[in-house]
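Let's inspect one such protein example.
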Amino acid sequence: MRIIPKVLLNQVRPPRKIHLFIIRHATTDANECGVIQSHAQNSINNVGRRQAHELGELFANFTLPLDLLISSDLMRAIETAEIISGICNVAVVLDPRWRERQRTPYEGRLLSQYYLDNNDCIDDKLAIETKDGLVARIYSTLVEIPKKYKKVVSLGIVTHAGPCRAVLNMFINHNLNTKSGNIVPQMQDIDNCMVIEVLVHIRYGITTWSFIRVSGLGK
């Protein structure tokens, strides 16, 4: 337990919270066909545009309006973020660190083929980004948010399935400094436009994290 002298209490910032909404991009044709996209610049399709509009309307009617959207710099994420931002009237900041896991040699190929090829060996042989490497990338990006966005209360992040699972992995494996009594999520599939809700607590210079839930359209 950290004890702070009373003389210092007036010198520290008041406690604050950041509500994070980590969003998987809307549906693409490749998603519907089970094709690996990796860093390919694919657009969302008509189904995806409808999903993004519905999600934007949900956020627009939320009791805590979004202050900002961060988006991966891949087209499917950008298009999703732009639709949501247009409805919610918030700015979009691009950050390539929220890209999907790099599996470039398999772009355009079926995900089932990747698993048939013994993915652990393939990752090493073809220099594909490992799962641990992805988690490390997303962790370093996530933990800088409280210092980088000091005036933001509600923040949306439009990203991909891999980074979404990496965030769940951090809570499951206790990589983050979680708040006492926090719910530990189960690993699960993250469908298009599903949202991971996280609450960040900043108090006396100490940041703690709370997993809230995974939700989606119609859930």
Residues 6-215 form a domain with the Rossmann fold fold (CATH 3.40.50.1240). Residues 188 and 209 are 20 Å apart (CA to CA). DSSP finds nine helices and six strands in the chain.
